[in-house]
Design goal:
5-stranded antiparallel beta sheet; 23 strands; alpha+beta; 4-stranded antiparallel beta sheet; 3 domains
Amino acid sequence: MKLLARLVLLVVGLLLLGHYLPQGYWLLVAKRWPHGPVVFYSCITKDFLFLRSTNGAMARMDRNGKTYSRAEFETLLPLDNWAQLARDGRMPKSVEGVELSPGKIRYERMSMRIRPDMLDTPEVPLHPLLESESGRVRLETPGDFMRLGNGIAFLSAATNAIETEKSARFAKAFAAARFAFPSTVIAGNPNILKPYDEGYFLVDAAGATFHLLQVRGEPVLRRISEAVPAAAKAQWESLKPTFVHVQEQECREIRAFLVDQNRRPWLVVGKDYRLVPLPLEHYDPAKASLAVRGDLFNRLITVNSEDHLELLAFNRDYAEVGRYNEDLPTRKASEAGVTARVLFPFSLEFEDDASGFMGFYLKAGSLGTLLVSGACLLGVAGWLAARKRLSWRRLPDLLAVAVGGIYGVLLIFLLPKTE
């Protein structure tokens, strides 16, 4: 019984030290870690510009390393700095024959960000379906919630009772559209603080994509492969999205961002649901963040992973006009990171940037940690032998040192002595 209790204490101790010791280490050796640059695409130079942090100071430069003063940098980015340029009297009246006005600049600006944890985050299976054409100036929160399981039902928020009449009307629309329950993806933006409502993009059990709206209380459900031009039908039928993100923009250009079954990213653009592939070389949806920014002239796609920056620029017709790749310094590759991976055989985290779930996330050290653990094991075994305490009863302790390296050594001195 004592041996079993000792084993439990050792296992729990290894897990706790595997969590807290690496955290304490990084708290001491690396209080701050440099982030990648802030990226822009200039409608003046037709190239990327960067705002980089260098030794605590901000440097403004292009891809060739040429630096600019703050005023020069702002002049090259009139659509990002129009308010300051207008105040200083430096705002151009037009660029490439296109007249610039504050209203037009604000209307055409867009921004969307996709984080890895958005692909793996729990959600409550109740979805507010907003009225898309209520006739009111502002969108309003509905009094019921949509539930999609093996069918569709609407639940009253006040009574929690199923609204049978409305549920039946929507169920009829789903049957007419040949929607195969259950849905595998339900993507919408129920926030009422947005310019309009795009409704929900749904993917059914067969992988077909649908677009659901509520218009004057009635369901409008489109099977997208049948709502697009004939040339795009086969593309939509083979897509089978696994993730969809909806974020309404003032200019109403980008309707959704999606990732298909092959983990390739796409934009859904315009009234005809045009599919725009994003030909990115380093985008892993589970590990990298993706941002889409747009203005009067261009669309900038930025992919940030732990060790890489990838940029892709489109014109308004989504033809590629620029591309850039840069390796980023990582904590893992730094001297402190190499030392940590040799010193600690593993680290345990309860949260992960790539998931919205709490869990046990184990990260193994490098092969060098085997030498450290072996040295610890020989040292402890020699120390016990010298004190004539090396017996089969110390086998759990020796096993803890073999697996946990310095964690096991600390446990031997922290835990009560075994006879």
